[in-house]
Amino acid sequence: MQNPKKEKVKTNTTKKQFRGLGVSAIRSGIYSFVQDTSNPGDTFIIQKSADGRSFALKDVDARISSINLPLDTIESCSNFALAEHDEYYYLTYKTKKNGIAQLVLAQSSDMVAWEKMAVVTAGNQDEHISGCVVSNYTHKDHLMLYAGGSHLSLHGSNNLIDWYAEAPDLLGDRVSDGEDITIASIDVLNEGILVAYYTHTRQKKGAEISDTNGSTLNPQDYRLRAALFDKENPAKLLWHSEESLQTVDRNTQDTKDLGSPFGLVLRDDAFISYWQGVSGRLYLFYHVVSGSVLDEAKDGDRELWSREELPQLERVPENPIMAPKAEHAWESKAAFNPAAIFVDGAFHIIYRAIGENDVSVLGYARSEDGINISYRDEHPAYVPREIFEGALQPLNKVDHKNWSPYMSGGGAWGGCEDPRLNRIDDRIYLTYVAYNGWQPPRLAMAWITIENFLKRDWKWSKPVLISPPGVVSKSGSMLPEKIDGHYVFFHRVFPDIHIDFIDDLNRFDGRTFFLKCRSSIKVREDHWDAGKFSMGAPPMKTRDGWLVIYSAVSGRQEWEGSDLRYKIGAMLLDLKDPTKVIYRSHDAILKPEVHYENDGAKYGIIYPCGAVIKGEKLFVYYGGSDEFTCVGTANLDNFLSKLKTTGKIEESLTI
Q1: Rounded CA separation 351/333 (Å)
Q2: CA of 127: how far to CAs of 40, 72, 293, 413, 416, in Å?
Q3: Which of the residues 138, 282, 405, 584 has the least number of beta carbons within 10 Å of its own beta carbon?
Q4: Nearest CA to 411 among 357, 455, 364?
């Protein structure tokens, strides 16, 4: 595990004293619950975050009401844990009545007005009780809840009012008699139900204990541990961490203000923990978990690799490098999904833009260093000219400088989408998705000479459809050179990448000759790219093979608990036979984790359309949350070395 990174929780509430009530992650985001101690009353603050670091205010007047049960003052409440099921949210929290601790369940349809439903553990007077409902999960038509205290227990209910103890002690002697358990987070994974919890030792004030290594610990120190339970039998323990998953040295200058943790979320290969400061400040720690810990539970007998051993892209600090421009009506809403090519000493970017009429066009930008934009055209570089692209009527000639989005029609979100640039000889071929708003999206292609491209004289050839009618085909690109006298096309027909060999590009006439899906590279079941995947950037030639940057989704809509976030991966294809995959990334090389990948037009979207190798550096250009243009980079030799070490496959995933 890496040393944790400490940060202050970034909220829009400053210069006040706050008490952290809880932080939980559900499908729609990460939510924090906070009490403003300078404003006593029965309300609390709810804030939302996409990345777990920067929180935006959702509501300051959330409150809990009750008809049949006594109300709880917020001052007496703690250990908030959020869950969801069907169309409702469930909040569990600890409160005290006459000095007796209780675990309470409240329900809400909007996460603002909460109704106290039940005291879950009415017969349990455990001082350190805590708990959380398992989100979007039932066992024999019962909601299930894991509770902490002196033991880790399992409870169930089919009416939210009456709760029964399914199993009073799930861990046995794995937790010592002198330790209390506080539920930190519950995540339903493909492999089971992962329950993360803190333990802390009950000791008299001033006493000290020693851990297994003989180190002296303060009695208030917390150890983070986890247990994995069977989804078919939530009382059956499958795996348990033997060591603490988190280390926070409480004796340093940076951490002397810390009190106790009040929340935890699991994001990919990292825990984010939230801590109450004695001063009233709230803190978070970011802990990357090594493959020897959580992956042991999640991956079973697979070969395990830590994050440091896997190929990774690093976001540049300048991200996003392009955003929508309100002053340009044709790109006022989005500037994203960038294709890129290096020509004549500069990086040239063609990107998808959406403006006032919601029809996609393509814009142009240039960068000398691959990151900082030195020129951005105020007019679009490519606009719909044919009916199949969303134009109201075919256009033989386009005046780009005077083109207006109000002149083009088509259905909402139609137009020319998700470009790729492919240089072959003295031409640059543009492949893109053509969508007229009512028929299935299809791949189209046009070309421009290098000379006109560099002059920004947008004299494109007449566009032609290259994929068959009635089939949704996307993410089209080519190899930059022929293989055995054939052009090699890649495109996606759900859920796989398909490959075609074309002897003459002039055969594409839009009427009789189309791509045929001759061979395929398949999704990988039980892997991070099991849902669907597609070519991101056109393949780049390296000494080790054709480097492919691709886009993938872990789940599918119909799969229970699907992860529908877009992530980026990499693979190497054989130089002589590009249908053969020789290396493929064991895990994603980039995942949507920061605000510009989650807080734009769509949550959890990073979508690559371009990549450039310049010297020893790999540049990958991608769209963030369907709104921004971003860049990730890596040292090429290091990236390829890690990809070959961790991503070797024994057989080609082709047919």
Answers
A1: 13
A2: 24, 17, 30, 56, 62
A3: 138
A4: 357
Tokens, residue 575? 């130089």
Q: If 0-12 CB within 10 Å is exposed, 13-18 middle and 19+ buried, where does residue 56 land? A: middle
pLDDT digits (tens, 9 = 90+) for 53-97: 778 777 778 888 877 778 888 888 999 999 999 889 999 999 987
pLDDT confidence band for 286 (50 / 70 / 90):
low
Q: Tell me, which fold does domain 314-646 have in CATH? A: Tachylectin-2; Chain A (2.115.10)
Alpha-carbon span 580 to 116, nearest angstrom: 59
Q: Average pLDDT in the 631-649 region?
A: 93
Q: What are phi and psi of 295, to 5 degrees?
A: -60, -25
Strand-pair partners of 267: 270
Report residue 652's pLDDT band, with 50, 70 and 90 as the boundaries. Answer: very low
pLDDT at residue 107 greater than cutoff 80: yes
- Secondary structure of residue 613 in the 3-state scheme: strand
For 646, the enclosing helix (H) or strand (E) is helix 636-646
The string of DSSP codes covering 285-320 is: EEEEPPTTTHHHHHHTTS----GGGS---EE-TT-S
The partner residues of 548 in beta bridges, in order of sequence, read: 571
* Domain 11-204+212-254: assigned CATH number: 2.115.10.20
Q: How confident is the model at residue 507 (pLDDT cuts 50, 70, 90)?
A: very high
Nearest to 92 by CA among 155, 45, 16: 155
Q: What predicted TM-score, i.e. pTM, was given to this entire model?
A: 0.61
Q: 130: number of CA atoms within 13 Å, CB side?
A: 25
Whether omega for the bond prior to residue 495 falls within 30 degrees of 0, making it cis, is: yes
- Per-domain boundaries in the chain: 11-204+212-254, 314-646
Distance CA 477, CA 498 (A): 11
**Closest by CA position to 127, among listed 202, 54, 188, 69:** 202
Six token digits for residue 538: 């056109």
Using DSSP's 3-state secondary structure scheme, residue 62 falls into: strand
166-216 residue pLDDT tens: 888 899 888 877 788 999 999 998 888 999 999 887 544 444 433 333 333
- Cα separation, 573 vs 535, in Å, equals 12
